[in-house]
Structure formats: C-alpha cells, structure tokens
Write a structure and sequence with these properties.
With 85 residues, the protein is mainly alpha-helical. Helices cover 52% and strands 0% of the residues. Helix 2 packs across helix 3. The radius of gyration is 12 Å and the shape is globular. It starts with 13 loop residues before the first helix and ends in a 9-residue tail after the last helix. 27% of the residues are buried.
Length: 85
C-alpha cells in the first residue's frame, strides 16, 4: 500500500516535533529511547525523517511524542495550515 502525502509531505507535524524537542534540550536519540520505553519503536533515524517530513507518522506515535515532549495536540499541530495552501 502506497502512503499518501500532501504536497510532497508525509506529515505536517515534523517541524513542531523538532521545535519542541530542541526546546526540551533532548537529542533525536534520546527522544527515540524515551519513545521505546513507552513501547513505540522508533530509531533516531526515524525521528530525523519525521522532522524532515519524509516519514509518515501514526496516531499512536503522535500521542507518545506529545507525552514525551510534554506538549498538547494543539501545540503539535500549530502553524500547520500552511501545508494546505
């Protein structure tokens, strides 16, 4: 099954994940390790691809990332309207 994208992006939240990860002062590897503790198996290379909008992100991954970063869905999706223009 081919993954769909919007205007060439496989997700619209990657930039916000990078922003909040950097604000928390954690590396991609640390984020991946914390997600693995929650049972969400992502590698640091997967985090990089998510942040660069080249990897599809599942709903449970979004939820876990919000939990680890201590952010809300609103914060995860802020400023994402630009992807629909």
């Amino acid at each position: 099954m081919k993954t769909k994208n919007i205007n060439g992006y496989f997700n619209i939240v990657g930039s916000n994940i990078r922003k909040y990860r950097e604000l928390k002062g954690i590396s991609q590897r640390e984020l991946a390790n914390k997600l693995n503790l929650l049972g969400v198996n992502l590698y640091n290379s997967d985090i990089s691809r998510i942040e660069n909008h080249t990897l599809f992100i599942r709903d449970y991954e979004q939820k876990a990332i919000c939990q680890v970063l201590g952010i809300t869905y609103d914060q995860l999706f802020e400023n994402t309207n630009k992807y629909f223009e």
